[in-house]
Amino acid sequence: MSKVFPKIGKAITMAAKEGGPDADTNPKLRLAIQNAKAANMPKDNIESAIKRAEGKDAADITEINYEGKGPHGVMVFVECATDNTNRSVANVKTIFNKAGGQLLPSGSLDFLFDRKAVVEFEVTEDMDIDDVELNLIDHGLEELSVNEGTAYAYADFTDFGTLTGGFEELGIEFKKATPQRIPSNPQDFTEDQMTEIEDLIDKLEDDEDVQAVFTNVN
């Protein structure tokens, strides 16, 4: 949690900075707060993150992405929120280099990933999942999958607000709603190769500026 909470807090601050501190009128902030609650982030931490949006430090935070090639040719997309882009690029570059990989020019991996809105929610005993799916299609749903009692709803990133609005209309409380980059042509790797790839991902996710890491692993 010592690593997760700061990242979630930064996402809340960025959302509040972008659309204001009122969650009722700021859908992005409302989602960030809901994701924070799903991670059991204390209420005081959430309120502090919102207040930081009004401070000088928040004005310096920018969102920036890095793209790279890791061990065994794995493609990696890294999303950051930082107050020092020079520090961020140096740290990310070092992590890739030590893993035997390299940073790539911006835009190199755009064709390898589809940007999607992904909403995760629990399938309850009284829920008719087929009926839920039919209703959500009217709100941009492209695909719905269920795994061990947890469902994942996918839509195009541009339909993020429409999809989450559909959940609100249906009265379904979701665990998490996040924008994700889904590989359009996922690749298989051996168990030994995955050990090195996962080590790279872990090191990237440990960096304080990194918000999310996506790969083309199947």
How would you describe what is shown here?
- The chain is α+β, with helices and mostly antiparallel strands.
- The chain folds into 3 domains: 56 residues, Integrase, N-terminal zinc-binding domain (Arc Repressor Mutant, subunit A, Orthogonal Bundle); 79 residues, YebC, transcriptional regulation domain (Alpha-Beta Plaits); 72 residues, Alpha-Beta Plaits (2-Layer Sandwich), CATH 3.30.70.
- The protein has 8 helices and 8 strands.
- Strands 3-1-2-8 form a 4-stranded antiparallel sheet.
- Helix 1 runs antiparallel to helix 2 and helix 1 packs across helix 3.
- The radius of gyration is 18 Å and the shape is globular.
- It starts with a helix and ends with a strand.
- The mean pLDDT is 91.
Largest sheet entry: 4 strands, antiparallel
Compute the number of helices. Answer: 8
Percent of residues in beta strands: 25-35%
Could you say which structural class the secondary elements and strand pairing correspond to? Answer: alpha+beta
Unreliable stretches (pLDDT < 50, length at least 5) are none
CATH class term of the largest domain: Alpha Beta
What series of H and E elements makes up the topology? HHHHEEHEEHEEHEHE
Q: Percentage of helical residues?
A: 40-55%
Shape descriptor reads: globular
Question: Total strand count, please?
Answer: 8
> What is the CATH architecture term of the largest domain?
2-Layer Sandwich
Quote the average pLDDT.
91
CATH topology of the largest domain: Alpha-Beta Plaits
Strand order of the largest sheet: 3-1-2-8
Please give the domain count. 3
Q: Termini distance? A: 27 Å
The CATH H-level superfamily of the largest domain is YebC, transcriptional regulation domain
Compute the gyration radius: what is it? 18 Å
